Amino acid sequence: FSGDIAICLPILYFEKFVVYDENNEVVCAYDYRDLNYENHHFGKQKWTALPVFFNRKYQNECFDKNERVTKAKSYAKSLGFSVEKGKIIYNDEWKTELKYDSNKIIIHNDGSLEIQFDPPVLIPTNFIFSRWNIDLKKAQKTFPYLKEKYAAIIGQTTPENNYHIWYRQQDGVRGTLFEFFEKGSSDMEKLINFQFNKSTFYPDAKNQLVFFSKRSPECLEYIGKYPIISSEQAQAMLIDGKYFSITSLHKFEGPVSIKEEMIKDVVITYWPFQESDAFIMPFYRFCVEFPQYKQDNGLNRYSYFYVLAIKPEYISDNSIWWNEF
Questions:
Q1: In which order are the strands placed within the sheet that holds 174-182?
Q2: Cβ atoms within 10 Å, residue 70
């Protein structure tokens, strides 16, 4: 993404979105700083311009059915599944699902991947690989094993380690997933890859791998670098009610009033896009604390609020700012 801002950039539009997320971005933690997921230094950079992409999945122009079946068979072979026993159980324009004995491989038409391991795969017990309350420092030794063992499905040149961390609402137990994202050659590439070129390993409580997912950047078509607003401007817009949010923490009939003291953190990121998003654009993501929902066990509740980072003159309609809850 090198080079200056293009002289002529197409005007973008942003449709009202629907996100299918069971927790709707309500996050529990004793302190927001414990949530180091998506909190790398590249999300804190003072960018003045960032890439925008066209989502070819929006027009269903990525991988066809046959290409997806071929990809699935390749992944199955690398995992030691009985390829000759593979059965196609679903295959349409959006996704392909194959079954190998009880294992399932799903590939979406943008190349993103999901693997369900049944039975779960035991990770050698000399490595820490459990979902709940692990020693994060000691578990770092597990990353090289996963990187070597599953290199074929990770599919990255220079994988960088990451923990996805959250806290279980009912008892405050910390949950952890193991992730790799493509390091890239610059902070800007890291920012993009962290969102769109990332592999995630899901452990159970018994040192076993039960699920794997991978986001793919293969459907992203680079449009150009667009000027963006500053984080200070974005915060002013947030407080003014010009934001997007999908939080289910409470029911709003309109934008919630956010005070400056409620804002605990801000990073720049890209919205986890859906099939219906034509343009993939950067956002400022604010972590907002709601003290009235603090639990008796000491857990605080946070929600994420997004402000579009692209300067308004490059957006065809900036009148839609907040989502229905």
A1: 87-91, 95-100, 103-108, 113-122, 208-214, 198-203, 174-182, 159-167
A2: 13
Q: Which amino acid is at 145?
A: Y
Helix (H) / strand (E) containing 270? strand 263-270
Q: For the beta carbon of residue 20, count every other beta carbon within 10 angstroms.
A: 7
pLDDT classification of 315: cutoffs 50, 70, 90:
confident
**First-last CA distance in the chain:** 36
Alpha-helical (H) ranges within the chain are 65-79, 136-139, 142-149, 151-154, 187-196, 231-239
Cα angle vertex 190, ends 185, 193, to 5°? 115
H/E stretch holding 168: none
- What confidence tens digit (pLDDT) does each residue in 154-209 have? 999 999 999 999 888 788 899 999 999 999 888 899 999 998 999 999 999 999 99
Which segments within 153-258 are labelled E, that is strand? Answer: 159-167, 174-182, 198-203, 208-214, 220-227
Q: At a CB cut-off of 8 Å and minimum separation 6, what does 79 contact?
A: 103, 115, 152, 153
How far apart, in whole angstroms, are the C-alpha atoms of residue 104 and residue 325? 33
Q: CB–CB of 14/312 below 8 Å? A: no
Which tokens belong to 186? 């610059």
Q: Across residues 66-92, what is the average pLDDT?
A: 93
Report the candidate in 175, 178, 182 with the shortest Cα–Cα distance to residue 200: 178
> In terms of pTM, does the model score above 0.85?
yes
Rg (CA), the chain: 20
Chain mean position to CA 95: 19
**CB under 8 Å to 301, separation ≥6 — which residues?**
26, 27, 28, 249, 289, 290, 293, 294, 295
